[in-house]
Hints:
The protein is mainly beta. Helices cover 7% and strands 51% of the residues. The longest helix is centred in the first third of the chain and has 20 residues, at 3-22.
Amino acid sequence: MSVxxxxxxxxxxxxxxxxxxxxxxxxxxxxxTGLGGKWTGVALRNCSATASANTTVTVYRTDGSxxxxxxxxxxxxxxxxxxxxxxxxxxxxxxKVVSDQSLTGLxxxxxxxxxxxxxxxxxxxxxxxxxxIPHVAQSGxxxxxxxxxxxxxxxxxxxxxxxxxxxxxGTVTRTATRTIPALGSGKYPLADILQGDTCTRGSVAVESxxxxxxxxxxxxxxxxxxxxxxxxxAAKPGxxxxxxxxxxxxxxxGGKWTGVALRNASTTTAASVTLTVFKESGGLPxxxxxxxxxxxGQWVDMVGRGITNTGWIRILSSTPITGxxxxxxxxxxxxxxxxxxxxxxxxxxxVPHVAQSASxxx
Length: 362
């Protein structure tokens, strides 16, 4: 090989490497739908304050075929765009986002007809072969709860997935195995996994032979007069040494209540947990709970009974845990939202989508 050829080859390698690096940020949204009067929107925010983000959004069907591609989504430095994804195609699937800059963002899945409800899914930046859905419920009598698990497989080979329902004592009572096509996705009602059983608490462990991303919808809309419609992140169990977590909102004002669900990620060691509720005004703790969670087990309870205030919650654990809090109201309508455990504090945060309007839609 001549010197010129060698230099040309080296330059080509660097150019190709640079191209690969430029598109190295990949994100996943494990559920998309355009079926039955529903729509899916995507909001993306560029984390770079100096460079534009060249972004491509691809919507896939459950079988791995492409529904739609949104190329050349250009986000200005620190800029944001929000748009409907997938066009008018009546299908279900998942969404992949590729960008040459780091992004934050989420998707919204909403009903166009009553009940006018919406849930959101935060961008997922990492695939995992083990995921925990830290709280589920499935009941056929009041209060009625339904849980549906959504998983996507962004790999070029099919995924063999095992879903295990684990009760609060850490015992696996039901197991189901499913196959997800390459670049495909699946939607799995907890009712099918439980095979006729019911539960008001517990968790689901998802194990896969390849990395997947997941999410669960937790709702009671099939029960007349109830409209709780909350998304639960499928979390990768942590291996960190410092098991300190935060829930930035606690609210028991105006007829609201706050509940917390915690799932022990350790399969061998019980978790010793201290849960502390702080008022928004600071000062001494408003409530302290000491909790023991068995290996793979779960704890669920209301917090702040007898307290009418707002604030936040700190959780210290002897083992890694996953979990969330629910904040709900019972009047005038039964509505709920949830917050996943946050394991890391930061001096810089970005809320990727906001809206404030005085006229319809408010």
